[in-house]
Amino acid sequence: MFRILKTFSQLTNQVSDFVLRELCVIAVIDIWREVNFTVFGNSGLHLIVKGSVSVCTEPHLRTDENEKDFRVPTPPPLKQKDILTVGDCFGTLKCLEGRGTNSKVLTVITEEPNCEFIRISCTEYKRVIKQIHQKDQTEKMNLLSSCQVYKLWPPQPLSKLANLIEWINFPSNTVLVSEGFKAPSIFVIKSGECHVLREVEKKHMLPNGKVEIRNKQVVMGKVGENESFGEISLLTDESMTCSIITSTSVQMATIDSDKLKELDDVTLQLIKQSSSPTFADFTQDEIYEEYMNQELKREWNEFKHNVVVDVINSRGVRPGYGKWSK
């Protein structure tokens, strides 16, 4: 059923693939055996899979883009009727307010015997969308209540915050926030992991013997599932104390600055009181010490690798060739 529904662009332009899969459960097949039979389109969206119909009024399909066209009285019947065939649609996913299911709006007449339509009822569509919204809201609430920052919040402000969440997937090695810059959003990690980096100044010897100061980034820790960051930076206009980069594919709940304006002062104050800057407690000496430890470990690994390569080359070993190919 999903593959069939995907072939109707007038449907796929209105709903996502996720919603489309849910609609497969409620889609039914209607068969109209007689010619010149009136089919009322205001009861649901009809996808023509066999036969043809003539359009009684225009527009014959309601979408979010042409909704305003239906705010006028019922248009007069068409003198020259358009014909819809297999692959076309008529009707609506959302019932027109103030119009009955037997309204002349969106009505068509069968032109052939045994016409077949896949019908998605307006009532069932509304129920599915409501269930999807409730499931999504519950998922957002569960994530926030599992986060240390929000776990002690009462349900009402938690629900307000959940209403603002947008799900976003990030690939690995994506810079989410940068040290010294304001965070673009509040982030709560649903799945995956991120590296937390701090900058440290290091002296670097140039080929001409001069010394210059360069900034290096050091991995100081990680943030993972059910952890959040960006709240203090976004609410106080302060710069981030660290950079955060995804180390794996990550699914995030995000709330951008524009949506935060929809919250009342009490909820905003609650966010500020519950949050703290991310990895802001490290001193420059601690960051430099961690940097040196990581550099020594990297140099030691490089030394071991070079020793192994030298031994292999001195013995005439060529991995992947001859007796070493297995």
Regions with pLDDT < 50 over 5+ consecutive residues? none
End-to-end C-alpha gap: 49 Å
pLDDT average, as an integer?
85
Give me the secondary-structure category. alpha+beta
Q: What is the C-alpha radius of gyration, as a whole number of Å?
A: 31 Å
The secondary-structure element order is HHHEEEEEEEEHHEEEEEEHEEHHH
User: Main sheet, how many strands, which sense, barrel?
Assistant: 4 strands, antiparallel
Count every beta strand, where a strand is a DSSP E run of 2 or more residues.
16
Q: Taking strands numbered 1, 2, ... along the chain, how are they ordered across the largest sheet?
A: 1-8-3-6
Shape: elongated
Q: What percent strand?
A: 25-35%
Brief digest:
The chain contains nine helices and 16 strands. The chain is α+β, with helices and mostly antiparallel strands and 326 residues long. Strand 12 and strand 13 form a beta hairpin.
Output the keywords.
326 residues, alpha+beta, four-stranded antiparallel beta sheet, 16 strands, 32% helix, elongated
Architecture overview:
The chain is 32% helix and 26% strand. The protein is α+β, with helices and mostly antiparallel strands. The strands form four sheets. It has a four-stranded antiparallel sheet. A four-stranded antiparallel sheet has the order 2-7-4-5, with no helix packed on it. Strands 9-16-11-14 form a four-stranded antiparallel sheet. Helix 3 (17-26) crosses helix 4 (122-146). The radius of gyration is 31 Å and the shape is elongated.
